[in-house]
Amino acid sequence: MKRSCPGSVEDISPAMAANTGGSGRRGLRSLPMGCVAGILPACVEGVPPSNRGPEALGTAGARARDPTSAMAFGLDAATPWGRSAAARGSALRGNAAMYVAALFGILIFAAAVQAQSLWDLANQNKETLRIATLFTAQDVRDRFSSEAGIDAAIDWCKKTGVTHAFIESFRDGYRAERSALEHARDRFRTAACDVSGCVTTTKVGKDSTGWKGIACYTDGPTQAHIQEIFEYAASMFDEIMIDDFWFTDCECPECQEARGDKSWPQYHCDLMVQVSRQRILQPARAVNPNVKIIIKYPQWYDQFHNRGYEVVRETADFDRTWVGTETRDFADQRWGGKVQYEGYYLMRWLGVLGGAKCGGGWFDPYGTHEDTYVEQARQTVLADAKEMLLFCYGSLQRDTGPANVTKLRTEIPGLFRLAELVRNRPLRGIAAPKPPNSDALDEQYVYDFVGMLGLPLVPTDEIRTDVKAAFLPVHALKDPQWQGKLETMLNAGAPVLITDGLARKLPPALAENKSLLVLPVHGKPRSLLDLTRAQLQPIRDKLLAPLGIRFDAPTKVALYLIGDNCVAVENFSDDTITATLEFAQSVQATRSLILPTDGQADFSFVGGKIEFTRITPRTLVVLRY
Ligand SMILES: [Zn+2]
Questions:
Q1: Sign (positive/negative) of CA torsion 7, 11, 16, 22?
Q2: Which residue among 422, 449, 475 closes a domain?
Q3: What is the mean pLDDT of the chain?
Q4: How far away, in angstroms, is 313 Cα from ligand 1 center?
């Protein structure tokens, strides 16, 4: 039997049900008609037909209304206002001023209701996915000097579903005033926001010989200054995030002498671990025994150890970890070069390393447009982040920030749903280990590009042999047992994809194993995006066979296997695409989620084969089967 189900619907979560109503009627009482379509466009997908309220009547297939349009506020022709305006013509012209005033009043009311509702939804879902923003030390100085500035910030948070405010005490050599920090902290708490502190360790003392704004932490007075900065923050906040400048690449004469026989990466890692313990964690806890300190790792994971980020010892020492997932726009001249899958790979990898300590992902608007901005949010949440931070309030008020946030607001209900779908569901797929502190050589961030080829990766921190399929680049060389482990996998019949860089290190006997595939990276991971669909097919077929899956799609379409009965496909390209996904067993597929809210993903299935006849550009679709 062949069923076509572009508009299939599926179960609804308890949190969503609280908003859309167990029945349409109850939902309408809690949210005035007309607003519902605007506030919950993504959730409508998840409501069974019998439970759909009038909000669903205006949607066509997967499309939902633009929440910023007048229609979303109930001002279309079907409203009493629309009809009476047409019928009464001249009478209304005489009352034009009253009409405009009333219309204005409705718009204000509708906007207020919408803001309130996204705020309510965020509060109901914050145990699954909390949304945060950061107010930099400069924001505290420039925007929190008046009550009006704080009011505006709180209003923006409520409209954006932001229930957690990080208020920063230090950045770029500037320390915010205690009175301003404490006042802002208390205002946000009164507004029912969770509040934490933040420190950005830029311009703190003696300059590094490398990265601008970074310090030499071999220098005693610089260490003392760091201690003072954290004692100050800990005196006001019970949780302090450290933005991702907590590293050093200094090679000054003082550092040269102190490192002795160590390599630079070893010296920088040892130094940062020691200074973290002695100048941050111990003194901060002495000032405030309740304080929890978060180390936030940058997005440039293949360089961590070279600049003193040591993910094993630092993750063990700090109370919590966070992850930079800002991939921005691949094509952007200043900020580009990162593919979207990087946010996912890194968030998952640090999630494995951090376990319960791993909190959230953090992304920003630089070099993005609306579509690439929300892709960062989707990858962060797909990777099981418990929280996402929108860096930062000040930057989101200018340039592309406002448009980005407008688009994000439409996806937030869907992101809550996505967080529920991935929580506590183990990943299936191709093991993709990156040992901590491993060198990438000329295969920098190759995992990200492999993920863009529709190969569902399972990021891990160690090479394990009990896997069904694996991908190994030159990073594997960090594991002294890598060759024996590879041999074990191949002898067990597990297909292993290795890069041409790693292939050059193989003994001839292993190189000829029939379960081995070699990926031609040629030292240019981004060249993988040029592989054709035909070139990809044999690689995918062989690697996915042990999983009982076959997948066919162009490049820049990623596949995620979540638990035993959930699959996500994200089209990162600017083209509408087709794809097929085949399972060894017969499946009944239903759609759980689509983002953006006006995206389209038409599919049909027969037996074990799901055929996507259309997935619109930059669209994420999640199916249950
Ligand atoms: Zn130095």
A1: positive
A2: 422
A3: 86
A4: 22
Ligand 1 centroid to Cα of residue 261, in Å, is 16
Sign of the Cα torsion 20, 26, 30, 35 reads positive
Instruction: Return d(Cα 63, Cα 55) in angstroms, integer.
Output: 12
Cα–Cα distance measured from residue 466 to residue 449, given in angstroms and rounded to the nearest whole number: 24
DSSP 47: S
Residue 200 Cα to ligand 1 midpoint, Å, equals 19
CA 519/CA 536 separation, integer angstroms? 10
Name every residue whose Cβ is closer than 8 Å to that of residue 550 and which is 6 or more positions away in sequence.
540, 541, 544, 580, 581, 582
SS3 content of the chain, % helix, strand, coil (to 5): 45, 20, 35
Asked whether residue 450 falls in the same domain as residue 437, the answer is yes
Distance 79 CA to ligand 1 centre (A): 69
Same domain, 391 and 435: no
CATH code where residue 294 lies:
3.20.20.80
| Count of other CB atoms within 10 angstroms of residue 356 | 8
CA distances to 11, 61, 562 from 7, rounded to whole Å, are: 13, 5, 21
Judged by average pLDDT, the poorest of 105-109, 276-280, 298-302 is 105-109
pLDDT for 368 beyond 60: yes
The 3-state DSSP class for residue 460 equals strand
Beta bridge partners, 601, equal 615
182 and 207: one domain?
Answer: yes
- pLDDT value at residue 620: 98
- Separation of 250 CA from ligand 1 center, angstroms? 4
Residues 376 and 336 in one domain: yes
**Per-residue pLDDT at 63 exceeds 70:** no
Residue 302 half-sphere exposure, CB side, CA atoms within 13 Å?
A: 18
- In the reported structure, the alpha carbon of residue 210 is separated from the centroid of ligand 1 by a whole-number distance in angstroms of 9
Q: 268 alpha carbon to ligand 1 midpoint, in Å?
A: 10
Question: Pick from 544, 548, 552: which is nearest to 615 by CA?
Answer: 552
Of 476, 510, 535, the one marking the end of a domain is 535
**Residue 243 C-alpha to ligand 1 middle, in angstroms?**
21
- Could you read off the pLDDT of 76-97 as tens digits, one per residue? 222 222 233 333 333 334 455 4
CA 119 – CA 412 distance, rounded (Å): 11
198 CA from centroid of ligand 1 (Å): 25
| Among 25-34, 110-119, 344-353, 494-503, the least confident range | 25-34
Beta bridge partners of 593: 622
User: Of all helices (H) and strands (E), which one includes residue 88?
Assistant: helix 80-94
Alpha-carbon span 225 to 288, nearest angstrom: 18
Is the model's pLDDT at 467 over the cut of 80? yes
DSSP 208: P
Tell me: do 45 and 185 sit in the same domain: no
**What confidence tens digit (pLDDT) does each residue in 125-142 have?**
999 999 999 999 999 999
Distance 552 CA to ligand 1 centre (A): 52
What values do phi and psi take at 290, rounded to 5? Answer: -90, -5
3-state DSSP of 144-183: CCCHHHHHHHHHHHHHHCCCEEEEEEEECCEECCHHHHHH
Ligand 1 center–CA 218 separation, angstroms: 6
Q: Are residues 489 and 529 in the same domain?
A: yes
Q: How far apart are CA 138 and CA 167, in angstroms?
A: 10
Residue 538 in tokens: 């044999």
**How high is the pLDDT of residue 353?**
98
